[in-house]
Amino acid sequence: AVASISDIPTDIPIHLELASMTDQDFMSNIVHQQVFPLVNSIGLNEQELLFLTQSASGPHASLASWSGVPDVGIVSDILFWLLKEHGKTAERASDLTRIHFHTLAYHILVTVDGHGGNQVAAVAAGARAAGTQACATETIDTTKVFLKAPLEFVTSQIEAPAKISLNPDEPVVHWHREGVSFHFTPVLVCKDPVRTVGLGDAISAEGLLYSEVYPQ
């Protein structure tokens, strides 16, 4: 995989969509053996995020499983660690500048400052795709969806956190942490899902469609 990715011209952005895994050594190899530094963007869900931090001894690695809706502060800590440890910096030869995290109740788009753009539209588009794809509708049908996201949350469980309350008029929330930007949006969850196969792919693809991977 590393050899194939290395053959792609450097001006073509590469997105890696993770999937469920059970082999921690394999996951650790993906993180450490030159796969993450070769891609510009990663997409993953809560199970993959937790397995990743357990495999690579990241923050909250002792957490065995999620209880209900994944805690936003814990998710934020792990995403921050991924970009700080494996993302692009002035000292590190890595192309990784973007992570699109998606879980049932909410999405978070995390980017290294100075890379990418249009994050508000991108994360909102991914959340919209989740509702329409799962319900098999062209647009969001408010009679078929419900809100499951926390209306209040803290942005970290490690550092001094900020407490955020959702505003329905501006559902995409932004915060910043040491050169990393976070964009959070709730998802209108389909009550009776019709199509769930490939949902993560559809979410990430829609987000990428609206993203500006390189500064304009």
Brief digest:
This protein is an alpha+beta fold and 216 residues long. The protein has helices at residues 2-6, 24-32, 46-55, 72-86, 119-135, 199-210; strands at 15-17, 41-44, 98-102, 106-112, 145-147, 152-154, 163-165, 173-177, 180-186, 188-190.
Report on the architecture of this protein.
- The chain is an alpha+beta fold and 216 residues long.
- The protein has one domain (2-210): Ribokinase (UDP-N-acetylmuramoyl-L-alanine:D-glutamate ligase).
- Helices cover 31% and strands 20% of the residues.
- A hairpin with a 2-residue loop joins β8 (173-177) and β9.
- α2 packs across α3 and α5 packs antiparallel against α6 (199-210).
- The longest helix has 17 residues, at 119-135.
- It is globular and about 50 Å long.
- The mean pLDDT is 91.
Give the SSE map.
Elements: H1 2-6, E1 15-17, H2 24-32, E2 41-44, H3 46-55, H4 72-86, E3 98-102, E4 106-112, H5 119-135, E5 145-147, E6 152-154, E7 163-165, E8 173-177, E9 180-186, E10 188-190, H6 199-210
Parallel strand pairs: 1-2, 2-3
Antiparallel strand pairs: 3-4, 4-9, 5-10, 6-7, 8-9
Helix pairs in contact: 2-3, 5-6
